[in-house]
Design brief:
Elements: H1 2-18, E1 32-37, E2 42-47, E3 53-60, E4 65-75, E5 81-85, E6 91-98, E7 101-108, E8 113-120
Antiparallel strand pairs: 1-2, 1-8, 2-3, 3-4, 4-5, 5-6, 6-7, 7-8
């Protein structure tokens, strides 16, 4: 009985050593964040593992803004982290965070700018 247990344990350990581990792509997001905004809105952010990109859901009900899965790229920032989405000809989005605070800005093609502050939940 003891010999069978030892042999089966060794076989299990050998099998475990030969199993290939999955290597995840470097850009897989590791954590999402939710920010509450001044107008009872929500910003959900999913950052890439290396921090160069973000996918953001914007829900600002009082302003009638409901955008899902906007893709942002990291931009130069003097302080904190800043991400830009210029995929639309009509509007540019900017997401800037520092510590537990975020700031979403939207600039339309007619140069009308709107921005709102948010706090990490």
């Amino acid at each position: 009985m003891k010999q069978t247990f030892i042999i089966s344990t060794l076989v299990f350990l050998l099998c475990a050593c030969t199993v290939k581990t999955l290597s995840l792509p470097k850009d897989i997001a590791t954590k999402s964040y939710i920010f509450s905004c001044a107008d009872k809105g929500l910003i959900k952010v999913l950052y890439s593992k290396n921090g160069t990109e973000a996918t953001i859901d914007i829900n600002l009900s009082e302003l009638k803004v409901d955008k899902k899965a906007l893709h942002f790229y990291q931009a130069v920032s003097a302080s904190g982290a800043r991400y830009i989405n210029k995929s639309s000809n009509n509007i540019t989005y900017e997401w800037h965070t520092k510590a537990d605070y975020g700031h979403i800005s939207m600039l339309s093609g007619t140069n009308k700018k709107f921005s709102i502050s948010c706090q990490l939940q």
